[in-house]
Amino acid sequence: MKVGFADTTFSRFDYAPAVLGVLSKSRPHVKIERYTVPGIKDLPVACSILFKRGCDIVIACGMVGKMPIDKQCSHEASMGMQAVQLMEGKHILEVFVHVDEAGSDRELSEICRNRASRHAQNALWLLFDQATLRKRAGTGRRQGKADEGPLRKV
């Protein structure tokens, strides 16, 4: 199996240690192909290239600025990645962190690290352990912040 990792130079956080750390620690035999692009609107093409290079799944990491145009660009990038997923019939796990999700650089860094590492684990479950994902269905898991937990039965 081969996992693609796409990231951007625009991001203020280096997602590689979080993503690659989980992948190499959990599944050291998995091959990893990295492709870095300038910004999030370049990620759909990066993901397509990674699939053409034989990747079975791609983790796409980017950071979204706080301006309305940044949010629009992230939506466009997301839609592009949706199209690539449908064309390839393979998953892209979108790890976008918006700078206005946090009140400080420290909190932003923690959200990035958490979201990236949890999505790296999700990628491995998608490839190797669907049973674990099924067990976690409806449990209110989040990437980036604390889990919400399931609804209480009333």
Uncertain segments of ≥5 residues (pLDDT<50)? none
Q: Mind telling me the C-alpha Rg? A: 15 Å
User: Helix/strand/pairing class, anyone?
Assistant: alpha/beta
Approximately how much helix is present in the residues? 40-55%
Order the strands across the largest sheet as they lie in space.
Answer: 2-1-3-4
Shape: globular
Mind summarizing the main beta sheet? 4 strands, parallel
Count of DSSP strands: 4
Tally of separate domains: 1
CATH T-level fold name: Rossmann fold
Mean pLDDT: 94
Topology as a string of helices (H) and strands (E) = EHEHEHEHH
Strand content: 15-25%
Description:
- The chain is α/β, with parallel strands linked by helices and 154 residues long.
- It has one domain: 3-Layer(aba) Sandwich (Rossmann fold).
- It is 47% helix and 19% strand.
- The protein contains five helices and four strands.
- Strand 1, helix 1 and strand 2 form a beta-alpha-beta unit.
- The longest helix has 24 residues.
- The protein is globular and about 45 Å long.
- The model has no long low-confidence stretch (mean pLDDT 94).
Topology:
Layout: E1 2-8, H1 16-26, E2 31-37, H2 43-52, E3 57-64, H3 68-88, E4 92-98, H4 105-128, H5 130-136
Parallel strand pairs: 1-2, 1-3, 3-4
Helix pairs in contact: 1-4, 2-3, 4-5
